[in-house]
Specification:
alpha/beta, about 25% helix, globular, nine-stranded mixed β-sheet, about 190 residues
Length: about 190
């Protein structure tokens, strides 16, 4: 049994009931929900006081999951992702089977394949991708550690993961890249 088994169980109960959670990711603390549940996604936008015109990041546990949620995953994506040395969110074209409000207006979607053990366990057991957006109100700084998460966010979620709350190692948001049709990598946020 993992040290975070109770957190996984509680998170799954919340997520499967349309809830939102506050949880540690492979980068900063995030607010998340089932990425296929439109009502849950709308709750995240409301909690963060964020415009729905700004799309959200989706977390997946395995590269093979891209096939289910992208119309045309790049054929060499697994090799490309292996070259990344830090958490990197990739913007892909042609999102499928996700809540409409997580998809950008141009049909693109931002997805990160997580290496973090907690996130991987949670996503694999949920069997669906997870929304991940920084645990802050829109316009405020992203929290580098759990203690920086505002009370408004803490009170607005259905479950807060206990695992890694005491970790004081400052974290940073992921790098964001777009892979062009020619395979070229465009860095959006380094």
């Amino acid at each position: 049994m993992t040290e975070f088994e109770d957190d996984i169980t509680q998170s799954l109960a919340a997520l499967r009931n349309g809830g939102i959670i506050l949880y540690p990711t492979d980068t900063i603390w995030g607010v998340g929900c089932d990425a296929t549940d439109e009502q849950a996604v709308k709750r995240i936008y409301a909690l963060k006081q964020r415009s729905e015109a700004k799309s959200l990041v989706i977390l997946m546990a395995d590269v093979k999951d891209l096939v289910r949620y992208l119309a045309h995953p790049p054929p060499d994506i697994e090799q490309t992702l292996r070259t990344f040395t830090r958490p990197t969110t990739v913007i892909y074209e042609g999102a499928l089977h996700l809540a409409p409000s997580v998809v950008n207006q141009d049909g693109s979607i931002a997805i990160r394949i997580v290496q973090d053990e907690f996130c991987r366990h949670l996503i694999k057991r949920l069997r669906k991708p997870l929304v991940s957006t920084s645990a802050n109100l829109s316009g405020e700084p992203s929290p580098a550690v759990f203690s920086e998460v505002s009370e408004a966010i803490r009170q607005g979620v259905d479950y807060t993961v206990k695992y890694r709350q005491q970790d004081a190692t400052p974290a940073q948001p992921s790098r964001i890249v777009r892979i062009g049709k020619d395979g070229a990598l465009e860095i959006i946020r380094n």
